[in-house]
Amino acid sequence: MNGQEEWQLAGTAAELYQRHLVPLVTSLWAAELLAAAALRTGEAVLDVACGTGVVARGAAPLVGPSGRVAGLDLNQGMLAVARSLPPPDGPAIEWHEGSALDLPFHEGAFDVVLCQLGLQFFPDRPVALREVRRVLRPRGRAVVLVYAELERNPANQALAAAVERHVGAAAAVGKRAEHALGDADELRSLAGSAGFEAVEVRTTSVIVRYASVQDLVRIQAGATPIASALDGRPADEREARLRAVAADVGQALAPYVGDEGLAFPQVGHLLLARR
């Protein structure tokens, strides 16, 4: 296997996200989010920043055929993958292209609004939360998941530092931005300022597993914004930079490597609030 074959993944970023990051990472968090939401038969649910739809697809069987599930995202590529996947049991999922800052739904349209790992990226979080509240029915509930502080997430911390060192600071901006709402008090304050009541923030964690550190770096370099910083570079340069990243990440994550591969904790905050 040459370097180019080792480090490159075949497919678009959205396809790679669905193929690799959904089963390894976001499906774990979707289970946490849906458990906290405690969806009931017949409820209408909106998944904001739905990506390829892991949360929406998990919600559909829980609300059943009498319920409603809608997914919304700005990214056409993510929605294209979402639409291409086999439909789950329950209602047919509605896929909408649109912004969290201007939700294309009337006031009080949903019983529950869910958002997994999206709020930290929104350019105007207060507006987004006010929009979430607007489309909720009276006493409707919002459940939002964000990553906790970077310092509490060893793999992302190691990856961000190594990418900055060997690829460039701009390449690590997205990885650091994943933790932009890591302060639980800030998250709680944002929800209160948006008019929500009964605001609660729960800190939780999952164990993420990769076959190896090299697998972690390879997937992150293909299925996240890190990829754009490597596009267009000669194959040998790309290989050398990624090998250097993997060496640094491997050293930092050595305590998490065992006989069955790499297993490390990810820590997040669950925001639960009512309109």
Strand content: 15-25%
Flag low-confidence runs: 1-9
Separate helix tally: 11
CATH topology name, in short, is Rossmann fold
Distance between the termini: 55 Å
CATH homologous superfamily caption: Vaccinia Virus protein VP39
Bulk shape? globular
Order of helices and strands: HHEHEHEEHEHHHEHHHEE
* Total domain modules: 1
Structural class: alpha/beta
Give the averaged pLDDT, no decimals: 94
Question: How would you describe the overall organization of this protein?
Answer:
This protein has 275 residues and is α/β, with parallel strands linked by helices. The protein has a single domain (3-274), classed as Rossmann fold. The chain is built from eleven helices and eight strands. Strands 1, 2, 3, 4, 5, 6, 7 and 8 form an eight-stranded mixed β-sheet that branches. Helix 5 (125-134) links the parallel strand 4 and strand 5. Helix 9 (213-223) packs across helix 11 (235-252). It is globular. The N and C termini lie far apart (55 Å).
